Predict the structure.
Amino acid sequence: MSELKKIMTLPGDGIGPEVMAQGVALLQALAAPLNMSFEFSEDLAGGACLHEYNVPIRDKTYSRCKNADAVLLGAVGLPEFDDNPTHLRPEKALLGLRAELGVFCNLRPAQLYDILVDASPLKKEFIAGLDLLVVRELCGGLYFGEPSGIVKRESGRFGISTMTYGEQEIRRIAIKAFELAQKRRGKVTSVDKANVLAVSQLWRAVVNETAADFPEVELEHMLIDNCAMQLVRNPKQFDVILTENMFGDILSDEASQLTGSIGMLPSASLGDGTPLYEPVHGSAPDIAGQDKANPIAMMNSVAMMLHYSFEQGQAAAAINQAVENVLQQGFHTGDIQIEGKLVGTGELGERIIEEVLKSL
Ligand code: IPM
Ligand code: MG
């Protein structure tokens, strides 16, 4: 009997549906060789859901996601909703989902494939062999802190967002980062703004306390402004970067560019409930529906799903390798600046799938 896994797919907006099609095709192709079966259910999220139901995501969709074994999301965001209030923006679907699923631990690995060394904006000697992991806290901080909103006072309007972290929230994400570092090169860089922010001072104290349980892991603290600089100055000094929600959002975009294109970065969001997997890139409405989007972040997000949710580490490694092989054969989408043949989303996806199947 093959194992049945329920996958909830939320293609979302812009290039989301195109890259999702490739992710689903990959899982379908892998089912038989891995002796697994996948049952897919699809739902609307983001702008697509606003169009249909005037809300970014429905409560029903949350329940369906909670009942699945894994959620795969394409991308959310459409410029036509830019002036909507926060609760009616496409992004709210993603934030709501993260909160509902309790996925506080967001993993964003940035690895540079050798063939893309010239596609990176940094010089080869600084970047070759780059392999770092951003561990971003995903359910707290500025994104969710209260009070928040725009209020009218006598002197005018005030915008309020609150960065708040309880020690439990800091400890649970710190533990994840240390555990992951144990399996990697044994170093955690915890990023904060402890020279200014009280919330960062608590962050630093709790990370130090947690470190006591992981004596074999080296811990360093770095201020966010310095880290942003170090990432382009000497990115190979990093193994695991542990940081809060907003800082992680910014640093992971910066890290993604080091790998040649934001179209490369996958992510896994893990926690108490159903895990969520999604490419780090956005909905890129400017190229949507044109078969131009890079499917690699999606393929590698599926790899992370196989690894973290289904104990298929070997299959995950096979996907990473297949991506590398296809890039080495010269096939690439327009966002990756390498010599070779420019192909569309569909063709790159198919080539990656063929390559994985050869290796299993
Ligand atoms: C990300 C995105 C999201 C975030 C947006 C779309 C809400 O930028 O996943 O990095 O800010 O977390
Ligand atoms: Mg972001």
Notes: The mean pLDDT is 97. Residues 1-104+271-360 form a domain with the Isopropylmalate Dehydrogenase fold (CATH 3.40.718.10). Residues 16-34 form the longest helix (19 residues). The chain has twelve helices and 14 strands.
